[in-house]
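Problem: given the chain below (582 residues), write out its structure.
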Amino acid sequence: MNPYTWVWQYAKKSRAAILFASALILINSAAIIVVPLLGGMIVDQVILQGHIARLTPMLVTMVAVTAARVVVRYAYQILFEQMGQNALYDIRHDLFVKLQSLDFDFFNTVRTGDIMARLTGDTDAIRHMLSWVSYTVIENVLWFAAAIIVMSTISWPLMLALVVVTPVIGVLTIKMSSQAHPVFFEIRQSFARLNAMVEENISGNRVVKAFAREAFEIDKFAKLNEDYKQRNMDSAGISRRYLPPLDFLASLLQVLVLLIGGAFVISGRMTLGDLVTFNGFLWMLNQPMRMSGWLINDIQRFSASTVKIRQMLAAKPAIPTGASAQRPAIHGAVTFDHVSFAYADDPDTKVLEDVSFDVQPGQTLGILGETGSGKSTLMNLIARFYDATGGTVSIDGKDIRDWAVRDLRAQITIVMQDLFLFSDTIGDNISYGNHGAKPTFIREMAQVADANDFIAAMPDGYDTVVGERGVGLSGGQKQRISLTRALVNDPKILILDDTTSALDMETEAAIQQRLRTVTQDKTVFIIATRISSLRHADQIIVLNHGRIIERGTHESLLAQHGAYAAAYDRQLGAVTEEGSEH
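Solution.
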């Protein structure tokens, strides 16, 4: 599908407005003919022949037609702008809907800045094409055609002398178009890289300042900025190569009219009024020739932008995010049956290998392991952010791939390691997954997470607006707000990924005790590096390089004198040979 067919899918909703605007363009183009014709008539009939009485009606007609043209042109410009904005709205909406459907694999490989470039710069190039370039092309084609027809009726030999120049202009325009397309594509790519770098730098500004790397970031930006500038200079080089000859040829027409037309007037083959009329139509040839280069640039920019946008719209999620008509309730039984997993971009490296366990509704499973052992990946499989590459993950005895994804995720909540809070009120952040939650329930869950007191002490309490990503809050505060948000969602399966790592052990112990009270009917997974977070779990598994190396209760694992007991010894005290605690 070419770019024009594709963009018509969005523009065709305004087809009635487009047809009406096109009719107005025809009226405007027809009206343009009147003024030059009247100008020639004034020269011949009023000035040369002395019919003074005809001057006033002709002048009134010229003024009236010009005023009507201004109104008509303004009307179709507004209509095309509305059409462009409506299409742009739908394109951005489709892009955002597509983003919501794409899974982790897409966001692992495409940078945020690149996505933002597509949603801003690329979409605006499309709007420019629909709202301005489209009617400008139509105008110039109609003006050029009208000029040739009318000027041929006045003096076809003079018209023929001018048209001889047009094939040269056509050749230059085609060459310019072929060279401009790859350059504009590179401009869009470079802009995306620059946008990505700036977005990343803004998000990580605290890290930059903490390491005093401002100079390094400025240098990195300067290189990308230079690349973007150079790409635009390449585009300017093409314009410099072709636009001056196009302007020269367009200007040459004026010289030809004066030379050849003047000779025709002297020889009596044309009247002076005809020459004035002919000269009045000349801009209708000049303007399209002058504009051709600029329009080609805009069209190529549009074409390059549609490539990036269509690539995103064509992206397919590995896991379709559908939902059933009536959401079936899950009970929370989770089974891993010889599960293995490797990421798509590195299929030979297994993050999980031959993992098997079974958790019943209402039970708590603790997961311990070193960094990179596969703990978080295992939890991502439960929420079906990824599909296992081997074995089977089941919920309530049913293969997870047979569940509608949204049905699952609506009843599974993960408090992730990478905490994220929206730039919104604390109350809206907490009720994000359950907007119908009552304030009393929100405060009750906040008390469980030990968050209610510090939230209430804030200037506006639960109506306090937090900064982007929760800036201004401590790590422990963000963890407790995130935990409250998960509890308010009231899921059947609750996954806590190192949720209390930023808290002191006394606060953590109090939260863990309250959690056991409110999660008795939920299946809970606790990923932690602290033994204190896991010791009360119904069962605990220890992961190492994606494999389960130990499993059991806190007491039985201590008795094994293995990796779990060693971690306990490092963190909380010594373990006797019999497994008793000191």
